[in-house]
C-alpha cells in the first residue's frame, strides 16, 4: 500500500473513552486556564492531606513515617510560613510563564480521518522496518485501519507522555547534579531546598525562585513543547508531575500509595538525598532513577547501612 492508497481509505472514527468532544474538559474553564490552575490546586489539596496525616497520632501509622515529627521542628532550617510564601511565589511565576507559553484557547477543529491518513505512511514504513516488507504489507492489508487507528488514539499519545517524562527526568537530573557539583550554585540557589533536612509535602517546591524557574518551570515547559503535546495533554503532564513531586516529599513510606508502588523514585528514595550521607546521591527526579543507575549516583537504604557498618567497624578497630 502506498500514500495514494492510504489517501483513499475511509478510516472509522471510534473515539476512545478519554476523548472529550467539546471545546474544553469542563464547561466553566478553558483547557489553557485549567492547565495553569490544576497543578496549583492539586499541590495544596495533596499537601493538606499529607499535613493532616503528619498530625495524626495513630500508632499503626507510625511505622510508615520516615522521620519522627519532632525532627521536622528541630532539624529544618526554615519556618513553614517561609516555605508557604516561597512556594506561592514559584506558583505565581509558573502561572505567568504558562500563560505566555501555552497556546491560546482557540478551538482547533480536527479532521481525524485526514490526520490518520497522514499518519498511515509512517506506520507502514515502521512496520516494514520491524516486520519486513512482506509481513508488514500482509498485516496492513488485513488490519491496517485498526492498527493505524490504535497508533493514532493510543500509541502516539502514550509515546508523547513517555517522551515528555524522559525529558523532564533528564533535565532535572542534569541541572540538579550541576547544582550540587558547582559550589556557587549550591551555596546561592540549591541550598534553599536543602534547608528542609526533613522533607514534608508542601515543601516540595520550596526553592530559590531562580532555581524553581530553571528546574521545574522551564523543564516541564520544554517537555511539553518538545513532545508536541496539546494544551489538553498539558493539563495531564503538569498536574501529574506536580502530584508526583509532592508525593516524593511527603515523608511517608505508604504501601498503598500508587505513586510509591509504581515508581522506585519515591519519598523514601528522595529522602536519602536530603540526608547528609546521601546529599551527593539520588539526583534523579521526579519519575525514574535510570540516570542515577547509569551514572553511578544511586544510593539505597542498604547502601547506607553497609556504609555505616563499615564506619562503625573502623571506629572499633581504632
Structural overview:
The protein is mainly α. It has one domain (35-107, 154-317). The protein is built from 13 helices and no strands. It is elongated, with a radius of gyration of 24 Å. The protein starts with a helix and ends with a helix.
List strands and helices in order, with pairings.
Blueprint: H1 3-6, H2 31-54, H3 69-75, H4 80-101, H5 112-131, H6 133-181, H7 183-188, H8 209-226, H9 231-248, H10 258-262, H11 267-274, H12 290-295, H13 301-317
Helix pairs in contact: 2-4, 2-9, 4-8, 5-6, 6-8
InterPro entries: Fatty_acid_hydroxylase, Sterol_Desaturase_Related
GO cellular component, one term: membrane
Keywords: Membrane, Transmembrane, Transmembrane helix
Keywords:
318 residues; mainly alpha; 0% strand; elongated
Secondary-structure class: mainly alpha
The stretches of 5 or more residues where confidence is low (pLDDT under 50) are: none
Strand content: under 5%
Find the count of extended strands (DSSP E, 2+ residues). Answer: 0
How far is the first residue's CA from the last residue's CA?
A: 78 Å
Mean pLDDT: 89
Number of helices: 13
